[in-house]
Amino acid sequence: QVQLVESGGGLVQAGGSLRLSCAASGRTFSSYAMGWFRQAPGNDREFVATIRWSDGRTYYADSVEGRFTISRDNAKNTVYLQMNSLKPEDTAVYYCAARSSRVLTSFLRRPDFYDYWGQGTQVTVSS
């Protein structure tokens, strides 16, 4: 069993920054990719960013490109999401997810292609 534990959420003013962390653990954890998704009340869960574990290749949603940066620490089995220039529309519960096996890159933007999920961390951006 793989466990993903997020941290780093909170309340911030528009234009501010936050860094989310997601630590993965499990007896035989290995990941093809790890990503971040978010869900605001009344909305579907949407893709934010993902990173391919082997080569560090990253992919972003258009809405966060240039403002958010996803990174990883292989030794710690941890993925980070640095969020800058935050906007009120970034307010949501942010979820970390892990995909175990190889898949077409385009599918990494779909939440149903991830095997493990964290419990979520609230990010609130005030105007």
Number of strands: 11
Q: What is the typical, i.e. mean, pLDDT?
A: 94
Span of the ends, CA to CA = 40 Å
Task: Indicate the percent of residues in helices.
Answer: under 10%
Question: How much strand content do the residues show?
Answer: over 45%
- Would you list the SSEs in sequence order as H and E? EEEEEEEEEEE
Structural class: mainly beta
Low-pLDDT runs of 5+ residues are none
- The whole-angstrom Rg is 14 Å
Please tell me what the overall shape is: globular
User: What profile does the largest beta sheet have?
Assistant: 7 strands, mixed
What is the tally of helical segments?
0
Describe the structure concisely:
The protein has 127 residues and is mainly beta.
Give descriptors for this structure.
single chain, 11 strands, 127 residues, mainly beta, 50% strand
Describe this structure in words.
The protein has strands at 2-7, 10-13, 18-26, 33-39, 46-52, 58-60, 68-73, 78-83, 92-99, 116-117, 121-126. It is mainly β and 127 residues long. Strands 2, 4, 5, 6, 9, 10 and 11 form a 7-stranded mixed sheet that branches. Strands 1-3-8-7 form a 4-stranded antiparallel sheet, with no helix packed on it. The protein starts with a strand and ends with a strand.
